Each structure stands twice: as structure tokens, then as C-alpha cells.
Amino acid sequence: MATVLIYAEHKDGKIKKATHELLAEAARSGAEPVAFIAGQGVEGLAKDLGAMGAKRVIVAAGDAVKFYSNEAYGKLFVDAVKSVNPAIILMSSSAQGKDLAPRVAAMLGVGLASDCTKVKIEGDKLKCSRPIYAGKALADVEFTGPAPQFATVRANALSIGPVQDGASPAVTSLPLDTGALKTAVKDVVRGASAKLDVTEANIVVSGGRAMKNSENFALLEKLSAIQHLAGMRTSKVIVAINKDPEAPIFQLADYGIVGDLFEVVPLLTEEFKKVLGEH
Amino acid sequence: MNIFVLIKQVPATETKIKINATATGIDTTGIKWIMSPYDEFAVEEALRVKEKNAGSTVTVVSAGPQRVAETIRTALAMGCDNAIWVETPEEIDSFQAAKALAGVLKKETKPDLVFTGKQAIDDDCAQVSQLVATFSEMPYVTVALSAEYGAGTVTVKREVEGGTTEIISMPTPCLIAAQKGMNEPRFASLPNIMKAKKKEIKQYKMADVGVTDGDRKIKLVNLQLPPAKQAGKKISGDAATQAKELVRALHEEAKIV
Question: CA–CA separation, A105 vs A111, rounded Å?
Fold first, then answer.
């Protein structure tokens, strides 16, 4: 059975949905999912990873890894790779995954398929596709180097699986042997508006130039994502509101409203309130 | 300070992408080539550090086929002092490109600072910065919003998701991968464009910088244009009707609210 090593991410004491998606895909494929998790006080999250499908969890916990750094986390993750000897490695295409995965690939001397929107594990092989040219084309990735096969996967590209409460994965503690570190994380400044992480959100409202100015974003009362067309490939349902009936976004949208957002959005807000009030 | 900036030539943002006959790349006929936009921030940052530190030099390095010389000259016209080109075939992967660029850094006078763009906008791999730094045993920060340069150290503000930023300090030599908005890249002046045409570009072959065909770790195959999505449902009527119908559809058909 192929072993799939998954780099688990957590925020505010919870495993991220994107990590759950990776574990679910590994479990669905019949491989042995193994999770790696690092951070301060993360020991208790091992059982959550088990519930999401991990058969084994490698924990690197302690004050020395309170903050993410590519240097420390990279060294520890490579230690985990060496102890597990996986056929496949998966990370989320998150801020951490994007920063860290190429470093790990360089340390292991293996290829990396980054930012994949389609991933399937077949035995000990990884079948993946990724958007290129900002999503204007798609390509399959062929690994020509040595194993493990390694990919970062965009959030929402895979579906999550069932949660099995009470699962008890085998937990191994990894020694925090990071060696001498050059980089120091001085501070992590959380967004002042306590915004939800866009990759974790169930519903994203994004606005483009039609919003005219930044104050008008208050109208959306939700998150805005910049490169919105490029980022929509893994969205499940897209709604577009645009005055221009020929706007390219209508090609991508499941529901389109030709109209003035300044008129339609407040009405929508009211309608949503009605529907959500029913629950 | 000895500063390097690593750039990539890419098709212009508005290029209409056509797939080549073997579906392993794009049809490059008639394409207008530009410096990858994130690299412009890297070049600008390198030039600003140089201007604040008398006696510094900025060397621009790029790997690619013959045509990249044109983009190297754009960087020279912006104000870079020296230029290096590593000649490669049309299709190489991130691993080979990074090994070539790290190979150049190793051959040249030891850098203090290396700048890159956070990703190139063609293959969107966002790997080369981290690979080069790791191969060169240099610390790095990606998605840099701003940087302060001290004596032998750099403190960088890095963007992560959810509006969060990380403040990271590292000693030189180090690598900084620029995010959009790190600065306002300058335009080259006409006299500088003329001067840049006469500057020498130092050339290396892949073998000179230790890269082999065996260093290729991935291939992109079976390129295709994204499947045309079935036309969505246009909701008609006045604004109030549209709003009502959309919320009904999202609730009852799509079941997402």
C-alpha cells in the first residue's frame, strides 16, 4: 500500500479544511494517509487528523515551532519524509504550502507539481493537472524524476470525506532538531478586520473595477479577492453581476444577472436575510 | 553591495493562448514577450537598494532561449549594471531553471542580496525563488510586501492569507521574492534604452552552470484550453425580481445557502 504524506495546516486550534480535503483523497484512493503537523500545542490535533483519515500522525510540537518558518518547518518535514518514505507527498497550495513545498522539493531533489486543481492518487502514482497562463490553459503533469511524487493542491479542488470521531491514529513525536536557523519570525500580524481566510470560506463575494472605489466594498460586506477570474477554477457555483451582457465573467458563471450591482446587491442582501432567517 | 535580480521572459498578459501541435507547450508564433510583471518589482527593488548604497552593482540574470536577451535589455535600460544569460531549450522545468540560476550565483562574485518576482505569469509554478535560495543555502522570504535593509540583515514583511502579515528578519546573503505593490517600477528612459543596447550580455550554456537534461523533474503534457463551461443561467427581470430569483435558485437548486 502506498504511503501518502500530508502536510497538515491548522489555524486557531483547528485543522484547515484544505488539509481535510487532502486526507480524504488519500483515504479514498486506498493509500495509507500519514499526516505531519507542526506548531505549539498541536498534540491534541492528532486525533482530529485521525478522524479525517490519517492512519499515522507525526507531531513536531513545541515553543521552537510556535511560528511557521520555511527553514525550521522545512527541516522537520524533510525529517518526517525520511522516516515515512512516502510514495506521494501532498501540501495545500496555501501561503505556507507555496512557500515551503519548493524548498522541500529542492532538499529531496524531486519534482513538484504546484497549485494543482485536479489530483488523483492511483496506486503509488499521482495524476494531477494544473492551470497555466492564469487559467487560460490546463496541463497534466508528468513526473520524470525520482519518487516521491509531490504536489501542492488548491483549496476546494477535492471534496472532504466523512469524519470518524474516536479514530485513534498512531502518533509519533518528532524531535525538534531544526539545526541553527538563519531566519527569525519577528511578528505575525493578524488582519485588523479578522477576515476569514479566502481558501477556507464557503462563500466568497468578490468585486472588481465596477466597485469604483474602496468604500463601495462595504456594500459587499464580505471578502474581496483580487485576481478573481484566475482564482475561480475550483469554485463550485459562481454568480456574476455585471452591467455588460457581453462580460467574459458570464462564460464562467452558473448564474448571471445583467444589471447594476449598486441596485442589485442591496436587494440581494435583503433576500438572503429572508432565506437565512428561515433556518 | 553585490545585488542580483533573476528575471523571466513571459508572453504578454493579454496574449491569446494557443496550444502547440504536441500539446507540450504553447504556440509561440506572433507572441509579444515581456518581463514577468512580478519581476519588475524585483528589478525596481534591486535598483533602489543600489541607489541607497554607493558602490553597489546590480546584475540581471535570466535563463531561456535566445529571445530572452530582449527582456534582459529591458532590465539594463531600467538601470541594471551587468547582465547574464543562460541559454536553455524552450521547455525546461522549474528545477532546471533554478539550478541554472543558482549555478550562475555560485560562479559569480558572492551576492549580498538576490531579488526575484514571487512567480512568473506563464507556468505560474512559483517555485524558482525558493529553489534557487535552497540550492544556494540562502534564507528567503516569498510574497514580500516591503523590506528594510540594515547592516548585514534584512527585515521583510510577507503577505499570507486572511489579511495576515509576517515580519521576518534574515542575514545577508538572502533572497527576497517580490509581491505586486512592493514598489512602483520605473520606466526606462530613451537614453538608457539606447545605452542598454550596447551593453555586453555574458553568456553561459546549461553545462557551464552544472545543469543536465536529467535535472528535469516534471513535464507539462496534454496542454488544453479549459473546457467551455456550459452557459450559465441568465436571470432576467427588474432588479428586485432578479435578486429574488437568484436567492431562490441558490437556495433550492444549487443548495449553497
Answer: 6
Domain positions in chain B are 2-215, 230-257
Please state, in angstroms and rounded to a whole number, the distance separating the CA atoms of residues A177 and B62: 36
Structural domain boundaries, residue A89: 3-173
Quick check: A99 and B143 in contact, CB under 8 A?
yes
On whether both A42 and A155 belong to a single domain, the answer is yes
pLDDT tens, residue by residue, B181-202: 999 999 999 999 999 999 999 9
CATH of domain B2-215: 3.40.50.620
Is B126 in contact with A251 (Cβ distance < 8 A)? no
The pTM (predicted TM-score) of the whole model is 0.86
The residue whose grid cell reads 553568456 is B203
- Residue of A94, A116, A144 to mutate, testing the B interface (most B Cβ within 10 Å of its Cβ): A144
- Angstrom distance (rounded) from CA B142 to CA B129: 8
Q: Does B194 touch chain A (CB under 8 A)?
A: no
Please give the residue of chain B at the shortest CA–CA distance from A269. Answer: B243
Residues A83-133: pLDDT tens digits? Answer: 999 999 999 999 999 999 999 999 999 999 999 999 999 999 999 999 999
CB A31 within 8 A of CB A121: yes
**ipTM score assigned to the predicted complex:** 0.91
Q: Is residue A109 part of a domain?
A: yes
Q: A154 and A84 in one domain?
A: yes
Choose among A49, A71, A233, A86: nearest CA to A153.
A233
In the block, cell 507572441 appears at: B31
Between strands A88-92 and A149-153, the pairing is parallel
CATH number of the domain at A135, please. Answer: 3.40.50.620
CB B11 within 8 A of CB B26: yes
Put residue A193 in one of left, alpha, beta given phi > 0 → left and psi -120 to 50 → alpha.
Answer: alpha
The three cell numbers locating residue A119: 489530483
Do the beta carbons of residue B112 and residue B1 sit within 8 Å?
Answer: yes
Residues of A within 8 A of B12 (CB-CB) are none
Distance, CA of A64 to CA of A67 (rounded, Å): 8
Helix, strand or coil for residue A236?
coil
Query: Does A138 sit within 8 Å of B225, measured CB to CB?
Result: yes
Do A155 and A30 lie in a common domain? Answer: yes
